[in-house]
């Protein structure tokens, strides 16, 4: 085997609570699910120990994908690799694109070199790469706590969401703004949300979706609030994902279509997509 190709899915935060600050960073309590936006990551063996990464044909010198590849090489004495990422997950939007690429590299390298790593080793390497990376390896529904290193998968319903965004929001700046605004960090009872997702339809749970970083993010990128308002005005339950800038909404098909038209008329791109059960799959 000289190459492995992996499809890795984006995520949305159905809830995001900002808890106490531990050192430089806040602890989080968030519920995520995977959605059908994805990057395709190809990892190819090299004859030397070099690691090269290209995004959509453009070589990059620093990325989470590079970090993951170097960790895999140095931890398990594998050879070098060439990594090619075909992007389908918008960057800087809170959809987990860089974490997804790192997870895909870990999964692909494990298969490429026949390491047959156990779940514990995969999670250990992933956690060193980034806080969301362990989750992105597996995807589906999960509740994450702390810096993302503690996650609990659960079974949830298939759902359909309208996703839209414009520009980006810098994560560090968003948390700084959150602190300056003195915002309320607990917006959702995640015990209730998980219980409802385990027993009810996706649309039934939409009114519970919430994100404590919303006010901070829209103050940095006003498009966040504008897109949110368009979705809400169409009768949808809307919520921002991550630290922005993308917003998603749930609701009946007619309302999703009506909101999509309003977004298009306002100059915003969009996708209407389903939730998925996986994080990484080989293709």
Percent of residues in helices comes to 25-40%
Could you name the CATH class of the largest domain?
Alpha Beta
Radius of gyration: 19 Å
Contiguous uncertain segments of 5+ residues: none
Number of self-contained structural domains: 2
Shape: globular
Class inferred from helices and paired strands:
alpha+beta
Description of the structure:
The chain has 283 residues and is of the alpha+beta class. It folds into two domains: 3-154, Ribosomal Protein S5, domain 2; 160-276, GHMP kinase, C-terminal domain (Alpha-Beta Plaits, 2-Layer Sandwich). 35% of the residues lie in helices and 31% in strands. It is built from nine helices and 13 strands. It has helices spanning 64-76, 97-112, 119-129, 133-138, 171-181, 190-199, 214-220, 223-233, 253-265; strands spanning 3-22, 25-45, 51-55, 58-60, 81-86, 142-146, 150-153, 160-164, 210-211, 237-240, 247-250, 270-276, 280-282. Strands 1, 2, 3, 4, 5, 6, 7, 8, 9, 10, 11, 12 and 13 form a 13-stranded mixed beta sheet that branches.
């Amino acid at each position: 085997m000289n190459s492995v190709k992996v499809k890795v899915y984006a995520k949305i935060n159905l809830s995001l609570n900002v808890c106490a600050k531990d050192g430089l960073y806040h602890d989080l309590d968030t519920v995520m699910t995977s959605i059908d936006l994805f990057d395709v990551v190809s990892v190819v063996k090299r004859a030397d120990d070099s690691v090269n990464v290209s995004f959509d044909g453009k070589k990059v010198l620093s990325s989470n994908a590079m970090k993951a590849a170097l960790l895999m090489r140095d931890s398990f004495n594998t050879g070098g690799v060439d990594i090619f990422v075909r992007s389908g997950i918008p960057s800087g939007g809170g959809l987990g694109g860089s974490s997804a690429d790192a997870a895909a590299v870990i999964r692909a390298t494990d298969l490429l070199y026949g390491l047959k790593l156990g779940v514990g080793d995969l999670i250990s390497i992933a956690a060193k790469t980034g806080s969301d990376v362990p989750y992105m390896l597996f995807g589906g529904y999960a509740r994450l706590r702390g810096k993302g290193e503690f996650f609990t998968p659960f079974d949830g319903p298939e759902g359909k969401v309208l996703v839209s965004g414009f520009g980006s929001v810098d994560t560090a700046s968003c948390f700084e703004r959150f602190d300056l605004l003195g915002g309320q960090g607990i917006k959702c009872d995640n015990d209730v949300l998980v219980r409802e997702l385990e027993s009810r339809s996706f649309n039934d749970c939409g009114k519970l979706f919430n994100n404590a970083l919303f006010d901070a993010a829209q103050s940095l990128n006003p498009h966040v609030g504008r897109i949110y308002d368009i979705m809400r005005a169409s009768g949808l339950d809307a919520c921002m994902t991550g630290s922005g800038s993308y917003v998603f909404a749930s609701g009946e098909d007619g309302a999703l279509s009506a909101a999509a038209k309003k977004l298009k008329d306002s100059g915003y791109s969009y996708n209407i997509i389903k939730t998925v059960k996986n994080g990484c799959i080989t293709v």
